[in-house]
Task: inverse folding
């Protein structure tokens, strides 16, 4: 017996008006869902396009992580965490004992940090006044000229160890 | 070079293992769909063993030897099964409109990926804090991995290493290229998901349905986001879909059954090697498949053996990872009596229900996920995906004379949701935090599974004889 011919759409049999109608409805449902998804995706892509290059609003911890993942031995993150974020608690407990360590010293600049700097780490300065930033930079440059500065995005000043490339 | 060899080996493996089928007779396309993940999974596992035990890494020379072996395997396979099914690509006339829509969806996905990768080249938070840090640890201190991971208090240092291994294999000696490796893997992951959905549905008898499913997946914002952000959940979704699809094929097809079970085992193992919850998802699929497997206990035992054979390489790396590398401690509270206590905790149930309802309906703003600094409502992650699913299920329901094998899809879907709920009941972290961060991604891992029931065509007992009418060459191969 010759088998019934199947329609190209989802295997529906072309043996009745009801089935053809159902094919049309399947198409419509997928078309509406896909259009909505496409619109939302396009909208989100436009949001990203408005933020050129690395200027997307990276959280300070994300900027520091970028450095660690890219191979910095350790990063000291000087910033004022709001104290609410889960990550800040995890950061605070982190000690620069491993190749992938991070250290956060909530906005303090002291002997401890200087020791880290001398041990060739990178620094991210964030959430500070320009005057404070300049003061820390001046201190660093007088104590050790082996750091060079590099901006990550708009807000992050990073000091990387080694001679300026 | 290493990245290219890894992918090529995956393609050869997929080409050699996949049996020909009536609906999906172009094995080159099949290899392109299933190969990259197979290559990354198996060779990533091998690289992990080399890194942890010798301190080195998979070299180009070793990979060339493996490639030579794979090529010989493929040639032997070709001698056993002649290459008549390897036909040139034809332009399908009746599908022109579908292809235009498909190309539009592909263009949108590509535009999205380029836009996000340009603005945020390092990906999202997990891309850096979880997968990036793990990959960095693998590269920086392979011989001392346990101590390195034990020192990381950020992210998930105990997570399995499919994606970190892939990142390590794709980045060269120059550590700066980790960002680029993440971007490449984002593209591979997204298009593997899309291609696996498409090719699997064709193999399961769908025609237009495969295209419709592909368009649905490629226009769902969350899948695009996960790929662009260098996350792993879309990879688990692809592996989940492949594993359930191969199990379904093993249940309904006598020819090629062994190969399908072996492939299902490989993808089940890969799920467990990709994310911690993958192990539970894989167990659900394995149990459901064996429960529905035809025949007496001897047949079921044989099927279980083949699944385990596929799982074996990943069981090995998972055991080594757990015993020698992963820091102790877990994410689930498995203390005595905890489950009983949590099962009657009404507040926990209410929170989980609320979070899942918000994801599925898109309504409400209780559990918030952020995009950069913008708060993102659930509706923006899924669009109308979860609204469309029940409608499509209802539309496909009445036309079918269901085969018993098709029960696998609802069994797996329900089983995996139950497994998630149990995991969320037992999670150690604060529940609101877990739900806000993970509920959408957990759903993304299984949201593609119902497409198997909606768009495949397993209801027709004469499907294979149908193939004989449409495509005599392929039908002859199906019949062995």
Result:
């Amino acid at each position: 017996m010759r088998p019934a011919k199947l329609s190209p759409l989802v295997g529906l049999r072309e043996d009745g008006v009801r089935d053809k109608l159902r094919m049309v409805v399947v198409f419509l449902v997928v078309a509406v869902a896909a259009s909505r998804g496409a619109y939302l995706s396009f909208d989100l892509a436009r949001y990203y396009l408005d933020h050129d290059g690395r200027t997307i609003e990276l959280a300070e911890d994300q900027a520091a992580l970028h450095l660690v993942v890219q191979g910095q031995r350790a990063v000291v993150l000087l910033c004022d965490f709001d104290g609410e974020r889960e990550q800040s608690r995890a950061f605070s407990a982190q000690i620069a004992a491993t190749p992938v360590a991070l250290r956060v010293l909530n906005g303090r600049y002291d002997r401890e940090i200087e020791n880290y700097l001398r041990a060739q780490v990178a620094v991210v300065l964030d959430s500070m006044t320009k005057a404070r930033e300049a003061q820390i930079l001046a201190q660093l440059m007088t104590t050790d000229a082996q750091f060079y500065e590099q901006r990550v995005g708009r807000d992050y000043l990073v000091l990387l160890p080694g001679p300026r490339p | 070079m290493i990245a290219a060899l890894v992918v090529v080996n995956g393609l050869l493996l997929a080409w050699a293992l996949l049996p020909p089928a009536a609906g999906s007779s172009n094995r080159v396309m099949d290899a392109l769909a299933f190969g990259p993940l197979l290559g990354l999974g198996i060779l990533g596992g091998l690289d992990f063993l080399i890194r942890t035990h010798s301190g080195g890494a998979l070299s180009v020379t070793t990979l060339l030897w493996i490639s030579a072996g794979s090529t010989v395997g493929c040639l032997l396979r070709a001698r056993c099964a002649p290459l008549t099914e390897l036909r040139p690509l034809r332009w399908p006339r009746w599908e022109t409109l579908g292809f235009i829509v498909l190309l539009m969806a592909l263009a949108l996905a590509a535009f999205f990926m380029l836009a996000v990768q340009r603005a945020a080249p390092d990906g999202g938070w997990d891309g850096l804090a979880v997968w990036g840090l793990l990959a960095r640890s693998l590269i920086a201190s392979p011989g001392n991995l346990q101590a390195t991971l034990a020192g990381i208090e950020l992210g998930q240092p105990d997570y399995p290493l499919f994606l970190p291994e892939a990142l390590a294999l794709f980045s060269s000696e120059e550590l700066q290229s980790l960002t680029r490796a993440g971007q490449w893997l984002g593209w591979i992951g997204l298009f593997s998901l899309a291609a696996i959905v498409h090719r699997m549905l064709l193999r399961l008898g769908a025609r237009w349905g495969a295209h419709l499913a592909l368009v649905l997946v490629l226009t769902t914002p969350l899948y695009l986001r996960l790929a662009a952000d260098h996350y792993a959940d879309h990879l688990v979704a692809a592996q989940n879909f492949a594993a359930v699809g191969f199990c379904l094929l093993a249940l309904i097809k006598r020819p090629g059954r062994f190969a399908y079970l072996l492939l299902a085992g490989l993808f089940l193992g890969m799920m467990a090697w990709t994310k911690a919850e993958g192990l539970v998802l894989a167990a659900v699929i394995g149990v459901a498949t064996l429960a529905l497997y035809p025949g007496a206990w001897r047949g079921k035992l044989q099927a279980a053996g083949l699944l385990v054979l596929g799982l074996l390489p990943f069981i090995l790396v998972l055991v080594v990872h757990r015993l020698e590398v992963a820091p102790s401690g877990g994410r689930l509270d498995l203390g005595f009596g905890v489950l009983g206590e949590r099962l009657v905790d009404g507040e926990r149930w209410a929170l989980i229900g609320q979070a899942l309802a918000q994801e599925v309906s898109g309504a409400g703003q209780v559990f918030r996920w952020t995009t950069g600094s913008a708060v993102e409502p659930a509706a923006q992650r899924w669009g109308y995906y979860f609204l469309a699913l029940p409608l499509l299920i209802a539309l496909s329901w009445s036309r079918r004379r269901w085969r018993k094998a098709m029960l696998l899809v609802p069994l797996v879907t329900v089983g995996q949701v139950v497994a998630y709920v149990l995991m969320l009941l037992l999670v150690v972290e604060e529940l609101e935090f877990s739900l806000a961060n993970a509920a959408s991604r957990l759903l993304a891992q299984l949201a593609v599974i119902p497409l198997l029931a909606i768009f495949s065509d397993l209801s027709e007992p004469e499907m294979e004889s149908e193939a004989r009418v449409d495509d005599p060459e392929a039908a002859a191969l199906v019949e062995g």
Q: What stands out?
A: Chain B touches chain A through 76 residues (CB under 8 Å). Residues 82-89, 460-480 of chain B have pLDDT under 50 and may be disordered. Residues 297-325 of chain B form the longest helix (29 residues).
